[in-house]
Amino acid sequence: IIAVWSGQAASFVSSGAAGFALIWYLVETTGSPLLLSLATIMYFIPLVILGPLAGTFVDRHNRKYIMMGADIGIAVMSLTVGLVVWLGYASVPVVLVMIVLRSIGAVSYTHLTLPTSDLG
């Protein structure tokens, strides 16, 4: 179980760093403090809206599969982001959409870290 939790911790940290890098990419390419605020808000909106729903979903389904699905989804988004930036298609709207999609994938991490024995 330590391997699973340490793997999830590494995934959580790297996912957060990648999300921060996307936001920073917008700031570096545009220099706009408004876009910095907008990107940060767009990162947190799915967490706030989907957080309570994700909690009940995670509690009722297999955490292992949810963890794998979230990791695979975030990995696909990370590869897509890299490809989009590399090919030169990284416009502001595209990066904002990718920030939202990565945030949706990250919603389950908060709920996966709480053991079911602590749910009462």
Describe the protein in words.
The chain is mainly α and 120 residues long. Helix content is 86%, strand content 0%. It has 4 helices and no strands. Helix 1 (2-30) runs antiparallel to helix 2, helix 2 (33-60) packs parallel to helix 4 (92-112) and helix 3 (63-87) packs antiparallel against helix 4. The longest helix has 29 residues, at 2-30. The radius of gyration is 15 Å and the shape is globular. The model has no long low-confidence stretch (mean pLDDT 80).
Describe, in short, the structure shown.
By secondary structure, this protein is mainly alpha-helical.
The count of helical stretches stands at 4
Unreliable spans are none
Shape field: globular
How large is the radius of gyration?
15 Å
Q: What would the average pLDDT be, to the nearest integer?
A: 80
Helix percentage: over 70%
Main beta-sheet strand count, sense and barrel state: none
* Computed structural class: mainly alpha
Number of beta-strand segments: 0
Straight-line distance between termini: 21 Å
**What share of the residues does DSSP label as strand, in percent?**
under 5%
Q: What pattern of helices and strands is seen along the backbone?
A: HHHH
Please give a handful of descriptors for the protein shown.
single chain, 0% strand, mainly alpha, 4 helices, globular, 86% helix, 120 residues
